């Protein structure tokens, strides 16, 4: 009895954190003009997806976990499983889109505004939801995920008041490759490339800036060496913060979802009749759900503007800024492109998002 109470409290906490955190992200963007820009559309989409997961899926998953009983019938059971697969897939694929967006921002900062246009953002989001629907409602409602080709949880042979997610080899391989393994490799590659570019630019600026300052002072015969150029130690600290943030992003994603998809793949290849009967399945499933509770922290609270908006909202103050909307980037003099890229790469306030300001 005590273990059930503890489990219920833990699952309720995950649900509350998922709902509350993602509501806070949406409110922060709505209430703060500084955050209302195209870049943060991906963050709002991620928050909305995770919020729907917390409202429409997690309560029923907790019901199954605590009682092992499904009183809502087979039709709603299949709808619930389809929603679960669709929203988890959309959340993962949105994380992939965010990584690609960040890759474009740091590799092509001067062209970023012309590359990431509203219609391209809309196409990216539509693609995310199309793939999510294609691997969830369509195969589950058509029975393509079962061994015998019939719709799961329906028919005389299925036990009443049970809700099972059946698997076969083609469905498991297609679903896991499209929704996890390929996105995981793509995210690792993009963030690894971002980290390499950050380090390369830092070394280049650190190596060239002292020479430029010395030659400037020699030409002007000035003994004053005051400058606003960041010191080597400051740049090293910024690089370290960016590295830690990158590690947190990719590390949380891997820790939360890799165990589930490994077990999901193994059970699917074995065509296990009821994966939920495996004790480890519920553990790794809820570990994956936890990623939706962590996303508001990892993709919101690590950004300075989001942190400020969170603080104002939690203090019951509407965020207000003197600047309205997102200011366009100022034109840079020749030779300042590398410095701008370095600032974007190493400034901790811009990870994992690029500030709208």
Give the helices and strands, then pairings.
Layout (H helix, E strand, L loop, with lengths): L1 H30 L9 H16 L1 H10 L5 H35 L4 H4 L2 H17 L2 H6 L26 H52 L11 H38 L9 H23 L2 H11 L22 H10 L11
Helix pairs in contact: 1-2, 1-3, 1-10, 1-11, 2-4, 2-10, 4-6, 4-8, 8-9, 8-12, 9-10
Membrane topology: Multi-pass membrane protein
Subcellular location: Cell membrane
Protein name: Histamine H2 receptor
Report on this model:
The protein has 12 helices and no strands. The protein is mostly helical. The chain is 71% helix and 0% strand.
Defining key terms:
mainly alpha; 0% strand; 357 residues; Rhopdopsin 7-helix transmembrane proteins
- Overall SS class: mainly alpha
Number of helices: 12
**Count of strand segments:** 0
CATH level-two architecture = Up-down Bundle
> What fraction strand?
under 5%
Taking pLDDT < 50 over at least 5 consecutive residues as the criterion, the unreliable ranges are: 211-216, 218-230, 319-335, 346-355
Average of pLDDT: 80
Subcellular location: Cell membrane
InterPro entries: GPCR_Rhodpsn, GPCR_Rhodpsn_7TM
Transmembrane segments: 6-30, 42-67, 79-100, 121-140, 178-198, 244-263, 283-302
Protein name: Histamine H2 receptor
Would you summarize the structure shown here?
With 357 residues, the chain is mainly α. Helix content is 71%, strand content 0%.
């Amino acid at each position: 009895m005590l273990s059930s109470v503890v489990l219920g409290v833990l699952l309720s906490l995950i649900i509350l954190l998922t709902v509350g955190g993602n509501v806070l992200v949406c409110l922060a963007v709505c209430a703060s003009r500084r955050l209302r820009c195209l870049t943060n559309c991906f963050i709002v989409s991620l928050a909305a997806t995770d919020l729907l997961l917390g409202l429409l899926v997690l309560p029923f998953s907790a019901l199954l976990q605590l009682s092992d009983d499904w009183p809502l019938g087979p039709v709603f059971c299949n709808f619930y499983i389809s929603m679960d697969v669709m929203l988890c897939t959309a959340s993962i694929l949105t994380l992939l889109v965010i990584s690609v967006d960040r890759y474009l921002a740091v590799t092509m900062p001067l062209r970023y505004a012309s590359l990431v246009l509203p219609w391209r953002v809309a196409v990216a989001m539509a693609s995310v939801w199309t793939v999510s629907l294609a691997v969830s409602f369509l195969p589950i409602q058509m029975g393509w995920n079962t061994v015998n080709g019939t719709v799961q949880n329906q028919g005389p042979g299925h036990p009443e008041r049970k809700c099972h997610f059946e698997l076969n080899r083609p469905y498991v391989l297609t679903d896991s490759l499209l929704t996890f393994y390929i996105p995981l490799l793509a995210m690792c590659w993009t963030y690894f490339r971002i980290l390499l570019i950050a380090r390369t630019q830092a070394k280049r600026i650190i190596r060239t800036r002292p020479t430029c300052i010395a030659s400037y002072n020699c030409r002007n015969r000035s003994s004053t060496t005051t400058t606003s150029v960041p010191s080597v130690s400051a740049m090293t600290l910024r690089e370290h913060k960016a590295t830690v943030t990158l590690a947190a992003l990719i590390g949380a994603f891997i820790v939360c979802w890799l165990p589930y998809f490994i077990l999901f793949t193994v059970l699917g290849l074995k065509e296990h009749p009821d994966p939920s009967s495996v004790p480890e399945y519920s553990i790794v499933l809820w570990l994956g759900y936890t990623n939706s509770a962590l996303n508001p922290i990892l993709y919101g609270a690590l950004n300075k503007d989001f942190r400020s908006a969170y603080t104002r909202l939690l203090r019951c103050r509407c965020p207000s800024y003197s600047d309205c909307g997102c200011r366009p980037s100022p034109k840079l003099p020749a030779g300042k492109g590398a410095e701008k890229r370095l600032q974007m790469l190493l400034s901790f306030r811009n990870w994992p998002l690029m500030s709208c300001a």
